[in-house]
Design a protein that fits this description.
about 375 residues, alpha+beta, Uridine Diphospho-n-acetylenolpyruvylglucosamine Reductase, domain 3, Alpha-Beta Plaits, eight-stranded antiparallel beta sheet, five-stranded antiparallel beta sheet, 14 helices
């Protein structure tokens, strides 16, 4: 395997290497001290596909678009729509633990990965998990690699859990109250309703306009299943408030509108506190009028996409409210990473795990922050 050879050569020469897919995450901002780049973009294609088992194994460089085409021919799909586009690779999606609005109904990418093959920093090939849904051997290794940003190994293959494509799908929209108390009541009504949506997002007024809706604070929902199920859920949704059928392509426009920005961060907490969290973020960022906001109602996460860095006072206020949420950076200038998240692996356990897989510390050094 060329990947294995390249990593072994780098390890022998103690040469730091940056692992990439199609380089869509290179602008995330945290400095990576590498002198070589190892791209897995050409390491693509299907390794094994058993439609009856609803599982597929693909090489890491396979794009989400190619994966969709292959599985779609069998009436199946991988319900993952990370922000950006389907031209990104599955390896990078797993390595960065990227998920989108469909995480509400299907879980994050971590819940859909059954097995991985990686090349460690020593050039060893390690496999974890399996190619069938019931196989849980190596489960911890699979979860460990998801979201490790290539610091523990270069992901070379991924085995995924698929779903049957629904026969019917519909996207609907409903205006959301701007008052925090009334918004909280509306969100609770949605979570208590007899609906099981694929996605359930709260959108700021400017983002609603970007996706083709009225320039108001809106709730966007997607239902899928058989005709009877979709009809029943649509009826239950309409009972909560006046709703309309959303124009086609809303989810793709949402993904595109909130990608490629210089500063992206999430405020994460319990779903019960989402209305207050949303209102807090709106008030704190009121001077950044071009900031786009959306929230996963079922997961309690508010995601903010800013064209420019918020003021220092706003940043301090967002970071300081630790009792109500956790602030997680997705993309930011290097100086902001240092202020808010200087290192995600500062604890002993994380550093020990890192050294176990990459003793020479040559894989994506610095991408999760410095290691002592």
């Amino acid at each position: 395997m060329i990947i294995q050879e390249r990593v072994r050569e780098a390890a022998a020469q103690s040469t730091p290497v940056r692992i990439t897919g199609r380089s869509t995450w290179l602008g995330a901002g945290r400095p990576v001290a590498a002198t070589q780049t190892l791209s897995l973009a050409d390491h693509s294609g299907v390794v094994d596909y058993v439609p009856n088992d609803l599982t597929i194994t693909v090489r890491a460089g396979t794009s989400l678009a190619d994966l969709s085409r292959v599985t779609g021919d069998e009436g199946q799909w991988l319900p993952v729509n990370p922000f950006g586009s389907d031209e990104g690779t599955i390896g990078a999606t797993v390595a960065t633990s990227s998920s989108g609005p469909f995480a509400h109904g299907f879980g994050t990418i971590r819940d859909l990965v059954l097995g991985v093959e990686i090349v460690t920093g020593e050039g060893k090939i390690i496999r974890g998990g399996g190619r069938v849904v019931k196989n849980v051997a190596g489960f911890d290794l699979v979860r460990l690699m998801t979201g490790s940003w290539g610091t523990l190994g270069a992901i070379s293959e991924v085995t995924l859990r698929l779903y049957a494509k629904p026969s019917h799908r519909v996207t609907m929209a409903m205006e959301a109250p701007t008052d925090a108390r009334r918004l909280g009541e509306r969100l609770r009504a949605l979570l208590d309703a007899p609906i099981i949506p694929f996605a359930l997002e709260l959108l700021s007024d400017n983002l609603s306009q970007r996706v083709g809706l009225s320039p108001r604070q809106m709730i966007l929902v997607e239902f899928g299943g058989n005709a009877a199920s979709v009809s029943a859920q649509r009826d239950a949704f309409v009972k909560i408030g006046a709703a309309i059928e959303a124009p086609p392509g809303c989810w793709d426009r949402l993904r595109a509108a909130t990608s490629g920005s210089n500063i992206v961060f999430r405020l994460s907490g319990l779903p019960a506190g989402l209305a207050a969290r949303w209102d807090f973020a709106k008030q704190t960022l009121e001077d950044s009028r071009d900031t786009l906001m959306h929230a996963s109602i079922g997961r309690g996460i508010v995601r903010c996409v800013a064209p420019d860095a918020p003021s220092s006072a706003a940043i301090e206020k967002l970071v300081g409210a630790k009792a109500h949420h956790t602030m997680i950076l997705e993309s930011a200038p290097a100086d902001l990473w240092k202020r808010i998240s200087p290192s995600a692996i500062i604890d002993r356990v994380s550093q020990s795990v890192r050294r176990a897989f990459d003793p020479m510390m040559i894989l994506n050094p610095g991408i999760l922050g410095p290691v002592n």
